[in-house]
Amino acid sequence: MSDVLLNINGLKTAVEGKEILKGLDLKINKGEIHVIMGPNGAGKSTLANTLMAHPKYNQVEGEVTFEGEDITELKTDERARKGLFLSFQHPEEVPGITVENFIRSAKIAKDGQLIKFLKFDKDLKNNMKELKMDNEYAKRYLNVGFSGGEKKKNEILQMLMLSPKLAILDETDSGLDVDAIRIVSQGIKMFANEENGVLIITHNTKILENLKADYVHVLVNGKIVKTGDATLAKEIEQNGYEAFKAEAAM
After folding, report:
1. Can you tell me which family this protein belongs to (predicted)?
2. Which of 33, 114, 209, 219 could form a disulfide with 198 if both were Cys (CB 3.0 to 4.6 A apart)?
């Protein structure tokens, strides 16, 4: 059986008629952590939303396969059941639904079966402890009154509890202080194993100080213009994106 989780070939995506992704190629294998970096407006969040079939993002060309299956026609919930997970850049507040009930409902919907309450409760508390979240968070309404850091940790908690095959983390480190980034990085390490994959979308190199990435990609003007290891992120931190913008314009 192939180790390829996600394979993207020639992906073009338009938003309200404007082409944002302009022929993007990317392959993620099981056991790999990939990081996509790029300036604002490069298409990073567009890629994340396209992969989860957000209706605003129109895939106009290219092929996206997940575990060898073309998922182009699959809706968001169908992709989630296949094992795709997206951590939102700006998580929504949902009054009336507690964190615990939301995660339980999402897990039942994803797995297609009832869950064992005692095991769920134990796993939830253990994961919250690892993420330095008080047990009372589970009883609070989803993201209501949460700080930015609490919202991001809650997204990581959902990832750990749902155990997807591929986690797409869109700007998970955005706006976090050093301690919160360290905790989020720890959560990603807890999740990552030889059977799943992680795609981190960011414009910040801080998260890579606590996390070993297998590949770093530079996304400029809707295309990946360079791929390397963690040293590529250091190059970006020192020199910015200007050289890559020039390369993309050629």
Report:
1. Belongs to the ABC transporter superfamily. Ycf16 family.
2. 33
